[in-house]
Each structure stands twice: as C-alpha cells, then as structure tokens.
Write a structure and sequence with these properties.
It is globular and about 90 Å long. It has one domain. The chain contains 6 helices and 28 strands. It has about 475 residues and is an alpha+beta fold. Helix 1 packs across helix 2. Strands 2, 3, 4, 5, 22, 23, 24, 25, 26, 27 and 28 form an 11-stranded mixed β-sheet that branches. Strands 6-9-17-18-19 form a 5-stranded mixed β-barrel. Strands 1-10-15-16 form a 4-stranded antiparallel β-sheet. Keywords: Membrane, Transmembrane, Transmembrane helix. This is MOSC domain-containing protein.
Length: about 475
C-alpha cells in the first residue's frame, strides 16, 4: 500500500507544472551527457589499422609557459616541437622529429584552398581604345586563419605505419604524374611477423605472406592524416547537437590509390608562387566536404592539396652567403622551412599588452605557430642569431654529425596571432597592435613587426628532440628582404 501511495505521489508530481518543468530540464541534460559520452568514446576508440599515432596526447611541454623565465646561464634549450600537417590547422606536438632540408617531417604537407574567379583587366587596342575583356580566370588559392579563423578548430592526428606489427610497411612514393600503376594482382606483400616485443624477425621458410591492398591499406600509403572538426547540426528533438566529423587522408599515397581516387595535378597559389600540387579532394566524402565548407564559412569551391615532392618552391631570400650554389626548397610553409620562437619573447609581448586586452597574462605561444619553441635565453636574444646548431644530422654508415641551421631572417608578423588557438575567435587588435608598437625592429620588414626567426636547415636528414641544447655559432644584424617589392 505504501509503495502504491509513493508511486501515485510520484505520478502526480510528474503531472504537475513543477514536475513538467523538472522533466524539461532533466531530459535534455541526460540526452546531452549520453551523446557526448558516446561521441568521446567513439573518438578515443578510433584506430587506424596497421598504423601508430605519433605525437603527445594529454600533455604538453608548453605547460608552464606563462611562468617561463630565462635560465641562469641563458643556455637555449628546445622546449617544445610542433608540426602542422595541414597549413593553418591545429598542430601535432612531438617529443622528437625528423628534419629534412624542407623542414620538420609532416609539416605543412597539406593545405586547404578555395577556387577564386576573376576577370582579366581591360586592355587597349592598336588605336588606344580600351576593350572589355570578358575572359574569366580560375585559380586555387591557399587559405589560412588570416581570412578563415575557424581553421584553428580543425584538429589533426598523424598515424604512421607501425613497424612493430605485421601491419607496418615502408611507404611508397607517388610516381611522377600519378599515371602508372598497380601490380598485376593489385596487391603487394608484407614480409615478416611481429615479435611479442614489437620488433620484426626475418621471414622463415613455412611462414605465410600477408596480402596488402595498396589502395585500401593505410600503411601502403605511408600512414594516415586524420582531420576532425565539430559540426553543429539541427533538427534533433532537443534542438542543435554537435557531431565530430572525421576526414582521413593518406600521408604518402601509393600510385594505385592515387589512380583509383583520380587525383589531379593543379596549380595552387601560395603568396607569389603557384606550384603544381596534388588535388586529393576525392578522398573527402561530398557530405563531409559540404559540412566543412559550412563550418568554415567558405562559399567558394573548397579543395585539399598535398605538396608534390617534385614541385617544391624555391627559397630565394635570406640565403646563406657561404653556399651560393646550393638550392633550398620549401613546401607549403609561408616562405622558409622552419620557424623558431623564444618563449621568453612571447612573455615580454604579453607584458606589453594593454590592461584591457583579453589575452593579457595568458598570451599563448601557440598563436605564433612555431616549429621549435626555445626556453633559456632572455627575451629577444634570438634577434641576433645568424647560425645555430640543434640536434644532429645523419651521415653515412649510421654516424651522426652537427645539424646546422641558417637564420634567414626575423619572422615578419601579420594578424594571424590574433586568432585564439582554442576558440578560433579572432581579436580585432591584439596582439598585433602591440607588436606593431613594440616590435618594428627590422628596417627591411617595416611596417610589419617581427617575432621569432625563420630558419633554413643546412642538411638533408637530421633529428631534433625536446631537451636538445642549442649552440649559437654566429650572431649579427638581420635585414629582412621583402617578398613583394
């Protein structure tokens, strides 16, 4: 009887205005908690077969950056390393990285671009009369957080072939024009099996070879880039919900995959250069691409390009004078292969921000999107660095040598650091206004302010690690050479 009375009381409460109001709040809350937990579990549980995710997860060597001070002996130390697989999207923090002549491996390997249409200018005929030219040109042009701040919300993951398992395989290179293709069977073979500790042992006689599909197997295409972004969709019973949209792109597509997906070579404008690049937008499902355009607020056609290793851009400014015959190349980075930044310099800029600035006291070094973050020296000590060593380079027979970097110039700054790396919101003024007020320190760069250094590796194969000491070999005065004159 008591149970019946309680049950009736409970029903009566739910039927009352107070009960209805409680349900109005409780049910959406329960639904949100459930969907969010499901989304997170799905994301954290995702794996790329045959591959291993690289990069720091759940921690950062930049923790404590707001309390960073110069060390007693001011010895420069590599504090943190970042690569940005997709230009202007979120980076991947590493504890160690391979360095090539074109920068840190996987850095700015991809870039989003939009198709820009324009009419040719009117020209004068032989009689000096201006004629209307109706010809329209179309050009893919790279996009960054400068004009599309929400790129900051696109997270990236690097999954590389896991050589500890049978699923790992050395990546293959694209052929010259993606035209030639597959083996007779369309399949290749993996050799060897993983040992219990993750190593490989040589193949033994009765051992069975495992078939590898060069089109579907990620390890056959050098691994996988995963891009994620939160997409708000409407129409659910409780209003707007958010889903995590995932895009998967091969890092080093096999010729078979390139042919199957019908990649194309197209010109993509990046500043004054228009290198032939690989349009691999066919890797993205049309629905996901439409959601991405909506998320970014891009109305023009949108595409994803990959650097073509045979069509790199030439570095033409700030070259080392002692290597006049050497050719230096860069991929989709703005102008130079490597960017270095002193954390103490960021703190000094933070101190100079006006009191009302939102970033005051919390100016995040990640806003400046450096590859190598340095701790130890006093603020702006790096302004005079001309040549440094960091990490080591690989030479013949497994030996290591000193890895030298040439400081091409101070890094000229635009308004991109005004974008908050976590929210994707762009401040109208800061920190760019403060940089213009305090950091117009290079006559060649004016009216642009400068912060950090643009570097050129003077080797083709090296390694750099967090904790490596940096030795300054040469100091001097930089004079920035303008890109556009």
């Amino acid at each position: 009887m008591a149970q019946t009375t309680f049950f009736n009381h409970y029903i009566n409460f739910l039927m009352s205005p107070a009960g209805a109001l409680a349900l109005l709040f409780v049910i959406p809350l329960v639904f949100y908690v459930y969907t969010e937990a499901r989304r997170r579990n799905t994301r954290s549980g995702s794996r790329i077969q045959g591959c291993l995710r690289i990069g720091l997860q759940g921690k950062s060597y930049l923790e404590g950056q707001y309390n960073s001070v110069a060390s007693q002996d001011q010895t420069p130390i590599v504090k943190s390393l970042f690569v940005y697989p997709v230009k202007s999207c979120r980076g991947v923090e590493l504890s160690v990285s391979t360095v090539t002549g074109t920068g840190l491996k996987y850095d700015r390997l991809f870039s989003f671009a939009q198709l820009v249409s324009s009419k040719k200018q009117a020209s004068a005929n032989s009689e000096g009369i201006s004629e209307v030219n109706s010809e329209v040109t179309h050009q893919w042009r790279f996009i960054t957080q400068r004009e599309v701040p929400r790129l900051a919300l696109l997270s990236t993951e690097l999954w590389v072939p896991d050589h500890r398992t049978a699923g790992g395989q050395q990546s293959t290179r694209l052929d010259s024009k993606l035209a030639n293709g597959s083996s007779p069977s369309g399949l290749t073979y993996r050799k060897g099996h993983a040992t219990e500790n993750g190593g490989h042992r040589a193949e033994e006689a009765p051992q069975k070879q495992e078939l590898v599909d060069p089109i579907k197997d990620w390890s056959a295409s050098g691994g996988c880039l995963v891009v994620r972004f939160p997409y708000e969709k409407s129409g659910s019973i409780f209003g707007t919900t958010t889903e995590s949209v995932t895009i998967k792109i091969p890092l080093q597509p096999s010729p078979e995959r390139a042919k199957s997906k019908r990649y194309t070579y197209e010109s993509m404008a990046i500043w004054k250069d228009c290198p032939e690049s690989i349009n691999l937008s066919n890797e993205i499902e049309p629905e996901s691409l439409a959601k991405l355009k909506y998320f970014l607020g891009v109305s023009n056609p949108l595409a994803l390009f990959r650097v073509d290793d045979d069509n790199l851009r030439a570095v033409t400014r700030g070259l080392p004078k002692d290597r006049p015959d050497e050719k230096f190349k860069v991929g989709f980075a703005d102008a130079f292969p490597v960017h270095l930044l002193n954390i103490a310099s960021v703190r000094a800029v933070d101190d100079s921000l006006p009191g009302e600035a939102k970033a005051k006291g919390t100016l995040d070094a990640r806003r400046f999107r450096a590859n190598i973050y340095v701790s130890g020296p006093v603020a702006f000590a790096e302004d005079r660095w001309m040549r440094i060593t960091a990490g080591h380079k690989r030479i013949a027979q497994g030996k290591a040598g000193v890895a030298e970097y040439h400081a091409a110039c101070r890094t000229a700054r635009c308004t991109l650091p005004n974008v908050h790396p976590d929210s994707g919101l762009k401040d109208r003024n800061e920190p760019h206004s403060t940089l213009k007020r305090t950091r117009q320190v290079d006559e060649g760069a004016k009216p642009h302010p400068c912060l950090g250094l643009s570097m050129i590796p003077l080797f083709q194969d090296g390694v750099i690690r967090c904790g490596d000491k940096i030795e300054v070999l040469e100091e001097g005065e930089h004079v920035y050479e303008k890109m556009f004159k």
